[in-house]
Design a protein that fits this description.
Helices cover 64% and strands 0% of the residues. The protein has helices at 11-18, 34-51, 55-70, 74-89, 92-101, 104-112. The protein starts with 10 loop residues before the first helix and ends in an 8-residue tail after the last helix.
Length: 120
């Protein structure tokens, strides 16, 4: 996603273009529900890549997340915050690990979660 601005209305489409092998499992019929696809499919996929320490894929993932974070579309940024970043907040090891891969805009959104959730 370089030139095109990420928009919430295209969130699932953009995700599936960027991650064509993303396993959808039982959620294949929920493609019109971005929070379900991002929270139930993409967040676990990210965790799996972290657990497997797949650095190349993690760089790709966090570049994609940064594009979401830089979007002028507030709904896109909210999707990133709620469906992805909040899932890393409660797990102290995950919290520290993902901060290392985050780009500036993503980190800014991630840090803002501390305003309403306790630090791990």
């Amino acid at each position: 996603m370089s030139e095109a601005e990420m928009k919430y209305i295209n969130a699932v489409h953009d995700l599936l273009i960027a991650f064509s092998d993303l396993p959808l499992g039982d959620y294949e019929s929920s493609l019109e529900l971005p929070y379900i696809i991002y929270g139930e499919c993409f967040a676990p996929y990210i965790r799996k890549m972290i657990t497997g320490n797949d650095r190349k894929e993690l760089k790709h993932i966090f570049s994609f997340l940064e594009e979401m974070a830089k979007s002028e579309d507030e709904d896109t940024r909210d999707l990133l915050q709620v469906a992805i970043l909040e899932t890393f907040w409660a797990d102290k090891a995950m919290f520290s690990f993902v901060k290392k891969y985050m780009h500036p805009h993503t980190r800014e959104i991630f840090n803002s979660i501390g305003e309403y959730l306790f630090s791990p």
